[in-house]
Design brief:
35 helices, 1035 residues, 19% strand, Calcium-transporting ATPase, cytoplasmic transduction domain A, Rossmann fold
Length: 1035
C-alpha cells in the first residue's frame, strides 16, 4: 500500500461518483438569445463614433432640435449597425452549430447492472467485446450510448480506433495484451507524430466488472499537458499513474480499442485550460483612422460652438449647438468602417485566388502586410525543411561523413564473426555506437500493408534509424518492454543516394519513414543476427532535461544508453579532449548534434536505482535516483544531422532585406548551428561583423550594451541565458540597441522568451513586427506579433492554426508582403482618404451656407440627397479604387525597394492627411462660393447646382487620384452618373432644373474645373518634385 504524502492535494473519483463536477460541454458561442443584442450593442457603443451618431439621431426626434427627419439622420447609421448585427448573428449561429455537433457526439459508457438505477436506452455489442477477459459476455455489464456532454468523472467509456477522446481519461484496459496503444495529439500540441500510451498494469489484467471497484486519486486540474501524477487503487493494490497512462481530451485514438475512466470534464480538461481567446489584433491603420476620426469630431464640435457664439441670439444655447452638430456631422466618416471591412474581405479573396496554398485566418488586417519593419523567424522547419539526413559521425578518435559511411559499414561487417551474436574487440566501439543508436530512441515501426512506417516524435530520430538501416541494422519491432533488431551480417548495398541528396522512394511525411528494404524483414536466419533488448526503464526527452535515456537488458547484461545535447551530456560523461571541439566543428556546418553515451550496470546497481526511482516518482522528484546512474558515462560518439534549407530561403531573405525589413532569427538550437544557418542563408553577409554572446553574467551586460552602441558590430548572436539577463535588467536599452542592427540571432530561446522579444520589439520601437514559425513552440511568438505567419510543417498544425496567415512554405511570405501587402495598404489608404474627403467637402459647404444666412443652423440638403450622396451616387466609384494598383506583381517582387516607402506610413500619414484636408476645404469653398455667385435667386436652383457640382467633383477626384483607370472604375463611374441623372426625374421636387439647361451644365462644368484644378496642380508638382518610386523604375 502506497501511503499518502503530506500536504498532498489530490482529488479522487470512482464509478457512480456523486461529487460535484463540471458539465462536459464545449461552448464557443459568444452570445445567448438574451445577451446577443446587449453584448453586440455594448461592443458597438464602445466606439465613440457610434455614440455620436446615435445621439444625433435622437435629437432629431425632438422638434426643437430637428434639422431633418430622424430617418435621414439615423438611416445610414442604422444600416451600418444592422450589417454588423447580421454578421455577428451569422458567425454565432455557426459557432452554436459546431458546439452542438461537438457536444452531441455519442460514446459508449459502461453500466454496472448490479448497481444501476439508469435506464439503458440502447445496448451495442461490437468490437469492444474483444476487451473482455472471458469469451462469454458478462451479464453484470452493459453499454449505454450517451452524448459527450453527459460524461462525468468516474464514468468508464469504450473507445475505438479513430475516435476523438471526449474528456481527460485514464487508460484502464486495451485490446492489446501488452496494454499499448497510440494516440494522435496534433489538435492538442500541434505535433503530428503518434504518441505511445500504456494502460494501467493493475487494471489491464482484471475482468471488466472489477473495473467498477477501482478508485483513482489524481492531481487537481492543470494546464500542463506533458506531466501527470496520480494513483489507482484496487482492493489492497496500488499503482502510480503518470502521463503514459492518460489520454487528454481532443486527442485521437490511433490504434486499438480502449476502456478509460473519465477524470476531468468541461473547463477542467487540459485542452480547454490551454485554450486561450485569440489576441484581438488591431492594425496600425485602424489606430490611425481612429485618431483622425477624433480630430474630425473635435473640429465638428468646435465649429458648432463657434457658429453658436457668432449667431449671438437670445434663448437656449443648446438648441443652436445641437443643430449645428447635426449639420456638421457629415465630416464624421460613418461609412468608413464598413467600406474598409468590405475592402479587407476583397483583399483576402484576392490573396486566396492568387495564392491557393495560403489560408487567410484573420481578414481584419490585410493592409498590415504593407507596414512590416521586422520579421522574426524560427529556424527549424521555417528556414529549414525539417527533413533530416545523417551527415557526420565522430567516435572520438575517428570521424565519418557521407563519403566515408561505406567504410564504416565495411569495418563493422569485418568485425562480425561467423558465430552469431559475438564480436571481436577491435570493432567494439563502432558496434557500441551503432547499437546505442538503434536502441536509444522513441521510434516505433508500424506495418502499413507491405511496408513499414517509422513513427517517432522527432524527425532527428527517424533520420538516425534510417541511417542505421542503411548500414545493416534494422529496427524490427518495439513494444513497451521489448526492442527487436536485426543485423545483416554481409551488407552488400549502401544507399548512398538517399543519404546524399535526401531522395528516396519513400517520401518523408509527418515524421514517418517507409522502411527502405522490405526484404530484410524476410531474411533467412543465417543471414542476420537477431537482437532482443528487454526494456527495463525509459526516460523520455524533455525541454528541461535536454536528453533521453533507456535501460535495457540483453544477454544478461544491463546497459544504460543516454543521448542528448552537448551542454548537458558533457556534465555526465567521463572527461575527454574531443567532445567540445568536434561538437563545435559539426555545428559550424549547420548540423544538429547529439552526444551518445553508455554505462554498464550491475544487477545490484540497477535494483538500487529501481527502488530509489520508484520512491522518487511518488514524490514527483526523480533527480536523486537519476544521479545514481547518470554519472561517469562513457561517450560513444557524436552524431551530426543536417536540416535542409527551405526552397529559395536565401533569395527570399535577400529581397526582404532589400525591402528594408530586418530579419531576426530566434531558435531553440545551439549557437554554433544557428550561426551556420545564418551564414548559409545569407542572413549574415560576407562583410558582416557580428558579436557572439554566450553564457553572459549579469556584470557583463553593460559591456555588451556598450559594444552594441559603438556600432562596431552590425549583427548579434546571443544565447537564451544572456537574453534573459538582458530582459530582466536592461530590457528597453537592449531591445533598442538590437533594433538598429542589420541582423539578430537568438539561440537556445524558450517559447516565453520568443514571445517577450516579439512584444518588447513592437512596444519599444513602435514599429510593426511579424513572426513566422511552424511548431507548437512558435505559437506564443506568432500570437504576440502584430502579424503572424504559420507554416504547415512536420511539427504539426498548431502554429498554422494560431496564425493570421497559414503558409505552405517560407518563400510565400515574399509575395504576401511585397505584393499583396503593398497593394492592400495603398488601396485601403486611398479609399479612406476619399471617404474622409467626401464628408469634409460637404462640411465646408454647409459651414459657408450657414454663415451666409447669419449663422443660422439650416441644412442645405435634406432626406434622400444626404443619404444618396454617401451611397448610390459616390460609393461605387470610390470603392472601385480598391481594385486599382500602381504597378504589377512582377515589378513589386523584382524591385523590393518599392516596399520601403510604406513602412513610414507615407500613404496614410499626417502629412498626406493634411494635404487631403486642404484640398477638401478648397473644393468645398469653390463649389459653394461660385454657386452662390451664379445661382438665379432661387434656393432650389442652388440646391441642384451645388449638389450636381458636389457629386461630379467626387467622381472626378476618383478618376484623378486612382492608380489606374480599369474596368471596375469605368463601370462604377458610368453607373453612378446614370443613377444621378435619373434622380432629376425621380427627385424632381428637390433637384429642380432651370429652364436654361445648357447654361446650367456650363456652370457645373466651370465650377468643377475650378474645384479640381488644385488637385491637378498638386499632383503635377508632386510627381515632378517627388516622383514615386514606381515612376523612377519605369523611367
Amino acid at each position: 500500500m502506497v501511503p499518502k504524502m503530506e500536504n498532498e492535494n489530490l482529488r479522487n473519483t470512482y464509478y457512480n461518483n456523486t461529487n460535484k463536477f463540471l458539465q462536459n460541454k464545449i461552448r464557443n458561442q459568444r452570445y445567448s438569445k438574451w445577451t446577443f443584442i446587449p453584448k453586440v450593442m455594448a461592443a458597438q457603443f464602445s466606439q465613440i463614433s457610434n455614440v455620436f451618431f446615435l445621439l444625433v439621431g435622437i435629437t432629431q426626434c425632438f422638434n426643437c432640435y430637428r434639422i431633418s427627419s430622424p430617418i435621414s439622420s439615423l438611416g445610414p447609421w442604422l444600416f451600418v449597425l444592422i450589417l454588423t448585427l447580421i454578421k455577428e448573428a451569422v458567425d454565432d449561429i455557426s459557432r452554436c452549430k459546431r458546439d452542438r455537433e461537438f457536444n452531441n457526439q455519442r460514446y459508449q459508457k459502461l453500466i454496472s447492472q448490479a448497481n444501476n438505477n439508469e435506464t439503458v436506452y440502447e445496448i451495442k455489442e461490437n468490437t469492444i467485446n474483444k476487451l473482455r477477459n472471458t469469451s462469454a459476455i458478462e451479464e453484470s455489464v452493459t453499454y449505454q450510448e450517451v452524448p459527450c456532454s453527459s460524461l462525468k468523472p468516474g464514468d468508464i467509456i469504450a473507445l475505438e480506433k479513430n475516435q476523438r477522446i471526449p474528456a481527460d481519461l485514464i487508460i484502464l484496459k486495451t485490446i492489446n495484451l501488452d496494454g499499448e496503444i497510440f494516440i494522435r495529439t496534433d489538435q492538442l500540441d500541434g505535433e503530428t507524430d503518434w504518441k505511445l500510451r500504456q494502460s494501467v498494469k493493475l487494471t489491464q489484467g482484471i475482468k471488466i466488472p472489477e473495473l467498477f471497484k477501482i478508485k483513482v486519486d489524481f492531481e487537481p486540474p492543470s494546464k500542463e499537458i506533458y506531466s501527470f501524477y496520480g494513483r489507482i487503487s484496487y482492493k489492497d493494490e496500488v499503482e502510480v499513474l503518470d502521463l503514459n497512462n492518460t489520454m487528454w481530451m481532443n486527442t485521437v485514438l490511433a490504434s486499438g480499442q480502449v476502456l478509460g475512466m473519465v477524470i476531468y470534464t468541461g473547463k477542467e480538461n487540459r485542452a480547454i485550460m490551454n485554450t486561450s481567446s485569440p489576441k484581438n489584433k488591431i492594425g496600425i491603420f485602424d489606430m490611425e483612422v481612429n485618431t483622425y476620426a477624433k480630430w474630425l469630431l473635435l473640429l465638428s464640435l468646435g465649429a458648432s460652438i463657434f457658429f453658436t457664439i457668432k449667431r449671438n441670439v437670445s434663448g437656449r444655447i443648446d438648441i443652436n449647438i445641437i443643430r449645428f452638430v447635426v449639420i456638421f456631422s457629415s465630416i464624421i466618416p460613418i461609412s468608413l468602417k464598413t467600406s474598409v471591412e468590405f475592402a479587407r474581405y476583397l483583399h483576402s479573396y484576392i490573396i486566396k485566388k492568387d495564392m491557393p496554398t495560403v489560408i487567410v485566418r484573420n481578414s481584419n488586417i490585410p493592409e498590415e502586410l504593407g507596414r512590416i519593419s521586422y520579421l522574426l523567424s524560427d529556424k527549424t522547419g521555417t528556414l529549414t525543411k525539417n527533413e533530416m539526413i545523417m551527415k557526420k559521425i565522430h567516435l572520438g578518435t575517428v570521424g565519418y561523413s557521407q563519403e566515408t559511411f561505406a567504410d564504416l559499414r565495411n569495418e563493422l561487417n569485418e568485425h562480425l564473426k561467423e558465430e552469431k551474436n559475438t564480436f571481436i574487440k577491435s570493432g567494439r566501439r563502432i558496434y557500441d555506437l551503432c547499437e546505442a543508436l538503434s536502441v536509444c530512441h522513441n521510434v516505433t515501426p508500424v506495418r502499413e500493408g507491405k511496408s513499414v512506417v517509422y513513427q517517432a516524435s522527432s524527425p532527428d530520430e527517424v533520420a538516425i534509424i534510417r541511417w542505421c538501416e542503411s548500414i545493416g541494422i534494422h529496427l524490427l519491432d518495439r513494444k513497451t518492454n521489448l526492442i527487436t533488431t536485426k543485423i545483416q551480417k554481409y551488407f552488400e548495398y549502401f544507399m548512398n543516394e538517399a543519404q546524399t541528396d535526401n531522395k528516396s522512394e519513400a517520401p518523408i511525411e509527418e515524421n514517418k519513414q517507409i522502411c527502405k528494404s522490405e526484404s530484410i524483414l524476410d531474411m533467412k536466419e543465417e543471414e542476420v543476427i537477431l537482437k532482443k533488448y528487454e526494456i527495463l526503464e525509459t526516460f523520455p526527452f524533455s525541454s528541461e532535461s535536454k536528453r533521453m535515456g533507456i535501460i535495457v537488458k540483453c544477454e544478461d547484461k544491463i546497459s544504460l544508453f543516454v543521448k542528448g545535447a552537448d551542454v548537458i551530456m558533457k556534465k555526465l560523461v567521463k572527461a575527454n579532449d574531443w567532445m567540445d571541439e568536434e561538437t563545435g566543428n559539426m555545428a559550424s556546418f549547420g548540423l544538429r548534434t547529439l552526444i551518445i553515451a553508455k554505462r554498464e550496470l550491475s544487477e545490484e546497481e540497477y535494483q538500487t536505482f529501481k527502488a530509489e526511482y520508484k520512491k522518487g516518482k511518488l514524490n514527483k522528484n526523480t533527480s536523486h535516483a537519476m544521479s545514481l546512474i547518470e554519472n561517469n558515462l562513457t561517450a560513444l560518439g557524436l552524431t551530426g544531422v543536417e536540416d535542409l534549407l527551405q526552397d529559395n530561403a536565401k533569395i527570399t531573405l535577400e529581397r526582404l532585406r532589400d525591402a528594408d525589413i530586418r530579419i531576426w532569427m530566434i531558435t531553440g538550437d545551439k549557437v554554433e548551428t544557428a550561426t551556420s544557418i545564418a551564414i548559409s542563408t545569407h542572413l549574415f553577409q560576407k562583410k558582416s561583423s557580428y558579436l557572439t554572446v554566450k553564457e553572459m553574467r549579469k556584470e557583463d551586460a553593460l559591456k555588451v550594451l556598450s559594444d552594441l552602441k559603438s556600432m562596431v558590430y552590425d549583427s548579434l548572436i546571443i544565447d537564451g541565458q544572456s537574453i534573459q539577463i538582458m530582459l530582466d535588467f536592461h530590457c528597453k536599452e537592449f531591445i533598442l540597441c538590437c533594433s538598429k542592427l542589420r541582423s539578430f540571432v537568438g539561440c537556445r530561446c524558450s517559447p516565453t522568451q520568443k514571445a517577450q522579444i516579439t512584444r518588447f520589439l513592437s512596444q519599444f520601437t513602435k514599429k510593426r513586427v511579424a513572426a513566422i514559425g511552424d511548431g507548437g513552440n512558435d505559437v506564443s511568438m506568432i500570437t504576440e506579433a502584430n502579424l503572424g505567419f504559420g507554416i504547415v510543417g512536420k511539427e504539426g498544425n498548431q502554429a498554422s492554426l494560431s496564425a493570421d496567415f497559414s503558409l505552405s512554405c517560407f518563400q510565400e511570405v515574399l509575395p504576401l508582403l511585397l505584393w499583396h501587402g503593398r497593394r492592400a495598404y495603398k488601396a485601403t489608404s486611398k479609399l479612406a482618404h476619399l471617404i474622409i474627403h467626401r464628408g469634409t467637402v460637404l462640411f465646408v459647404m454647409q459651414a459657408i451656407f450657414c454663415s451666409l444666412f447669419l449663422y443660422s443652423p439650416i441644412s442645405i440638403y435634406q432626406g434622400m440627397l444626404l443619404m444618396g450622396y454617401a451611397t448610390i451616387y459616390t460609393f461605387g466609384p470610390i470603392f472601385s479604387t480598391v481594385l486599382a494598383s500602381d504597378t504589377d506583381k512582377n515589378t513589386c517582387l523584382k524591385f523590393p525597394e518599392l516596399y520601403k516607402d510604406l513602412v513610414s506610413g507615407s500613404s496614410f500619414g499626417n502629412k498626406r492627411f493634411l494635404t487631403w484636408f486642404f484640398v477638401s476645404f478648397y473644393q468645398g469653398g469653390i463649389i459653394m462660393l461660385f454657386n452662390l455667385t451664379l445661382f438665379e435667386n432661387e434656393l432650389l436652383s442652388i440646391i441642384a447646382l451645388t449638389f450636381s457640382s458636389l457629386v461630379i467633383n467626387e467622381i472626378l477626384m476618383v478618376l484623378l487620384v486612382t492608380y489606374s483607370i480599369n474596368k471596375p472604375v469605368i463601370l462604377s463611374t458610368l453607373v453612378s452618373i446614370l443613377i444621378f441623372c435619373g434622380s432629376f426625374v425621380v427627385l424632381n421636387d428637390v433637384l429642380v432644373l432651370p429652364e436654361n439647361k445648357k447654361l446650367f451644365l456650363v456652370k457645373v462644368l466651370l465650377i468643377n474645373m475650378l474645384a479640381i484644378v488644385v488637385q491637378l496642380l498638386f499632383t503635377a508638382w508632386s510627381r515632378f518634385m517627388h516622383p514615386p518610386a514606381v515612376k523612377k523604375i519605369k523611367i
